[in-house]
Design the sequence.
């Protein structure tokens, strides 16, 4: 096994995984938010639609958890999308305490119309990289995500023990 990547001597913000991920997220988020400045939709509304459409989340709390948003604020976002007819709420037949969300045909149409705003930004950011490098980078991020989820689960199990 290789030696650990970081040591006290080698760690600095410019090569820190946490620092770079946070900085890239902040910069990219600001750029994508700007693409939604026309006021028709917010980036958060687009993300909620995208998560519901893809099946990544199916409840307001699931959407909030996935994007690190406050559940109260997410409820307001969901309320706005419901009022616009872009998503629907349905009681979960297996658990009356849970309300499931589903994207409507109008929501899918809105998502389709809005998605190029995000795609254009990601494509500009990645245009100078060979596809194989981007695929590898995304695979590595996926692996890091899986490890963090496992660490979170283990920490939760320890907290409940």
Sequence:
């Amino acid at each position: 096994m290789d030696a650990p990547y970081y040591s006290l001597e080698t760690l600095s913000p410019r090569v820190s995984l946490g620092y770079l991920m946070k900085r890239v997220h902040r910069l990219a988020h600001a750029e994508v938010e700007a693409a939604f400045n026309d006021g028709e939709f917010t980036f958060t509304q687009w993300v909620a639609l995208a998560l519901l459409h893809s099946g990544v989340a199916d409840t307001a709390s699931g959407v909030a958890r996935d994007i690190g948003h406050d559940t109260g604020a997410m409820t307001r976002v969901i309320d706005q999308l419901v009022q616009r007819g872009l998503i629907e709420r349905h009681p979960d037949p297996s658990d009356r305490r849970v309300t499931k969300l589903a994207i409507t045909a109008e929501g899918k149409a809105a998502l389709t119309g809005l998605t190029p705003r995000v795609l254009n930004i990601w494509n500009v950011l990645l245009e100078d990289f060979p596809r194989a490098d981007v695929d590898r980078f995304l695979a590595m991020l996926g692996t890091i995500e899986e490890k963090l989820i496992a660490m979170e689960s283990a920490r939760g199990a320890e907290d409940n023990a």
